[in-house]
Specification:
The structure holds 2 protein chains of 2 kinds.
Chain A lengths: L1 H11 L8 E12 L4 E12 L3 E5 L6 H8 L7 E6 L2 E2 L7 E4 L11 H13 L1 H6 L1 H10 L15 H13 L5 E5 L7 H18 L3 E5 L2 H7 L2 E6 L4 E7 L14 H17 L7
Parallel strand pairs in A: 3-8, 3-9, 6-7, 7-8
Antiparallel strand pairs in A: 1-2, 1-4, 4-5, 9-10
Chain B lengths: L15 H8 L8 H21 L11 H16 L3 H33 L1 H15 L7 H8 L3 H25 L3 H9 L4 H39 L4 H10 L3 H29 L5 H13 L1
Helix pairs in contact in B: 3-4, 3-11, 4-5, 4-7, 4-9, 4-10, 4-11, 5-7, 6-7, 6-9, 7-9, 9-10, 9-11, 9-12, 10-11
The chains are: A alpha/beta, B mainly alpha.
């Protein structure tokens, strides 16, 4: 298991940052001119290598907008995003992204879905050459033997694991997760959080996750960004210093509870008038 | 992945309540071959009864027996290469050429409309408006333009069958999942790749819904063309039989028109099943809504 993960690591991770700063966002703002809406205002973020960051905030606080700008999917109004020292001006191979829905192509097998990013960027021959890597990734997420299965035969959790592999196959420097387990049931979701932690540790990944769930945000993160709405800005940063690997049992400890309360406290203040939740 | 639950021990018999719960009342438990046959026989019986009591004049409504005799005559005529065979062949050709023209033209233009902003914004509203017109009303125009030969019928069939294909193709391309589209954007997919690897495959259920409608419509188009534009097809034979009050022959010939439609529809449906092996019920619902609207 670890051996294969390392092999994938070697194949995937080539561009290590010189210092351990992977992402630096400076004075980022976004205005949707049509609606006259200031979605993001003066956001400043630094993400260090191998860390997990959760972003939480009320709906409409611009957290998904922030993630899309970081992915190069929509342009910022002002400010700058540096990924490994280079400004993000559009989609890039070293950015991995994952959504609430698995967005697998139903006519493709798991393996071909995982290989899709390579096929799109470098053609079918290159994709075929990476089959071994893709199979190792499927093994990493616990789906060995499911490479020839089509999405409709997979459960929601399994489909999201395939989506994780597809995100990892190009060896991205940053993983952008947009409520990745939001559509799963509570039990599967908790399990997937433990799995995600394991995968991120094995891959030494730098991750940035948008979520609605406070316990999930705290459980996975080294730091939790709490955002406030209209205009969207980062109100507070809560550092989570719980030891790793974290277990589901930890969620019942007083330390965990205190962190959740802290996040909830700042979150409530961020909402207009407070006490809406 | 697929776990089979093995029942332990001998299966116990269902209680009466369970049986009703799972398979309904006795009327729901009739095997389908039996219920279909019984219902068919019932309809024939009603037909025969109406004929026997002369509810309508027997000249205007032939009985089932007369009609089956006529159907038999038509069949022997077709098998021996008589004038019915000739008519069937002419109409079949009109339907096939009309369907192919509509299918290819509708698909290509549907892609152009669905893929371009101008197409979606400017062309689509016109298509929807045109689609609402009673297109058979154009038949005399096509006869005037393309004459009394097969051409005017092919044009009529293609014209009427074209709209569901172009509208469904364009709608299918526009209905692509927004998140998946964003995923392709994040993979730096170019327009052609996105079209070929995402939009066209996911639009296939829509496209096939359009093609199935087109299969039925192209028969309608060909026959309406023949009613108004003469020629030697089945439509003309039907028109002539009706004028000479040979309603039994009309019915027999309509059966053969139905055969053309069903065979064409069957070929399209069979191709769809082969191509859409991945297509599951959640998408079928979308398709269902669309066919209902078309």
């Amino acid at each position: 298991m670890t051996e294969s993960a390392e092999a994938v690591d070697r194949a995937g991770h080539e561009s290590r940052p010189v210092n351990d700063e992977v992402v630096r966002i400076t004075d980022l703002s976004k205005t949707f001119h049509k609606r006259g809406l200031k979605a993001l205002d003066d956001v400043n973020v630094t993400l260090r290598h191998g860390t997990f960051t959760s972003v939480i905030g009320p709906s409409g606080c611009g957290k998904s907008t922030l993630l899309k700008i970081m992915a190069g999917l929509i342009p910022a109004t002002s400010g700058e995003i540096l990924l490994n020292g280079k400004p993000v001006t559009g989609p890039r191979q070293d950015i991995g992204i994952m959504f609430q829905q698995p967005t697998l192509l139903p006519w493709r097998t798991s393996l071909d879905n995982v290989l899709l990013p390579i096929e799109i960027r470098s053609g079918s021959a290159a994709a075929k050459a990476h089959s071994e890597d893709a199979l190792k990734l499927l093994e990493l997420v616990g789906l060995s033997g499911f490479d020839q299965v089509r999405p409709y035969e997979l459960s929601g959790g399994m489909a999201q694991r395939v989506a994780i592999c597809r995100m990892l196959v190009t060896g991205p420097a940053i993983l952008l997760l947009d409520e990745p387990f939001g559509a799963l049931d509570e039990l599967t979701r908790e399990y997937m959080n433990v799995e995600l932690q394991r995968i991120c540790r094995e891959r030494d990944a730098t991750s940035f996750m948008v979520t609605h769930a406070i316990p999930e945000a705290v459980f996975l993160a080294d730091q939790v960004f709490v955002m406030s709405a209209r205009p969207g800005r980062i109100a507070t940063v809560v550092d989570v210093d719980l030891p790793r690997p974290r277990t589901l049992d930890m969620m019942t400890t007083p330390e965990f509870g205190a962190l959740v309360r802290r996040v909830r406290g700042t979150l409530d203040m961020g909402i207009d008038g407070g006490g809406l939740v | 992945m697929t776990q089979k639950t093995e029942l332990q021990g001998a299966p116990s018999a269902m209680s009466a309540a369970e049986e009703t719960w799972y398979s309904g009342t006795w009327i729901d438990r009739i095997p389908q071959p039996v219920s279909i046959t019984v219902l068919g026989a019932l309809m024939l019986g009603v037909w025969w009864l109406i004929y026997e009591i002369e509810f309508v004049s027997q000249v205007l409504l032939p009985g089932p027996v007369e009609t089956f005799e006529e159907l038999w005559d038509a069949t022997t005529n077709i098998l021996t290469g008589g004038h019915v065979a000739e008519g069937l062949w002419i109409t079949t050709q009109e339907v096939i050429w009309g369907f192919l023209t509509a299918g290819i033209l509708g698909f290509v233009l549907g892609v152009v409309v669905g893929e371009t902003r101008l197409g979606r914004k400017a062309v689509m509203p016109y298509l929807v408006a045109f689609n609402a017109l009673p297109k058979v009303a154009f038949a005399p125009v096509f006869v005037a333009w393309f004459g009394f030969g097969v051409n005017s019928k092919i044009v009529m069939a293609a014209f009427i069958a074209f709209f569901p294909v172009i509208v469904d193709t364009a709608a299918g391309l526009a209905a692509v999942d927004a998140d998946t589209l964003m995923l392709f954007q994040s993979m730096e997919s170019n327009r052609w790749q996105t079209l070929r690897k995402l939009k066209l495959p996911s639009a296939l259920p829509f496209i096939f819904a359009g093609l199935k409608t087109a299969a039925v419509f192209s028969v309608v188009g060909a026959v309406v063309g023949e009613y108004l534009g003469g020629g030697h097809g089945l439509g003309e034979l039907i028109r002539f039989s009706a004028q000479t009050l040979r309603i039994d022959r009309v019915f027999a010939l309509i059966v053969y028109l139905g055969v053309i439609g069903i065979v064409l529809f069957g070929i399209v449906a069979w191709t769809e099943r082969k191509l859409l092996y991945w297509h599951k019920s959640d998408l079928l619902e979308v398709e269902g809504k669309f066919t209902a609207g078309a």
